[in-house]
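Worked Example 4.2. Consider the chain below.
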Amino acid sequence: MTASAEGHADVVAARRHVLQDLGWGVTREGEELHGSSSVTPEMHVPGTRHLRTSILAAWADVLAGHLAVDTIAPRVPVTLELDVHLYRPAPADGAVHGAGKIVKAGRSVFVAEVEFTTGDGDPFGFAAGSFVPAPDARLTIDIPPNARPFSAEAPRLTVPFAQRAGCVRGAPGVAVLTHSDEVLNASNTINGGMIALVAEEAALSLSPGATLASLDLRYLQPARVGPVVARAEVRHGLGRVEVRDEGNDDRLCVVATSRTFSP
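Applying the procedure from the previous section yields the following structure tokens:
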């Protein structure tokens, strides 16, 4: 998730996180967190006119993650699973809204869900995130009660999202995300939304012109060193993706499944 931990504010002041360029403004409405942004061509899946599913995953991670912070703080929440499912291909333009709410706030596991709608209020997908407190109780997070990570502003992307993030496709079925301060989270590991991007790129490299109808990520351990390498296998639109931290003994960090929309 993308929340700021103690001491992280100074780092944020020195550089701009990739996700901030997506213009996802977050507000509180009662017990829910709401986000909104406008879709630009730089957010599209290459070769299509549809918003990336990985961007929706990143936006869901922001909402669900900060709901988790509200419940788990001062312990740091760690993402166990993040998934996004779309009824139809994501919008090409216009506003996108997300409404996040708590599903379960247990002693050991926290779960939140997010519904995505267009500017006209038409639902087009949903997401869910599961979190647990970090095993190391010495890790704490200190966020003012009403503080949110990103303010509402116009998206600032001037290049495609993958290029901005430093994510490139290699051989078919392979994508690589470089390590930089601009893709890290509060624990100085690769942000979960950025992991979604590299998994999506690996799967889509085997399905040119397609977009993802669903993306489900299970986080096994943090990606600390990088580069992060995703390798995908896709059969009949269903993909299996492994994401490894190449610089840290090639450790398996995330396993993911994906499904593309039918042609």
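The helical segments are 8-14, 53-72, 161-165, 192-204. Residues 2-14 have pLDDT under 50 and may be disordered. Compare this with Example 4.1 before moving on.
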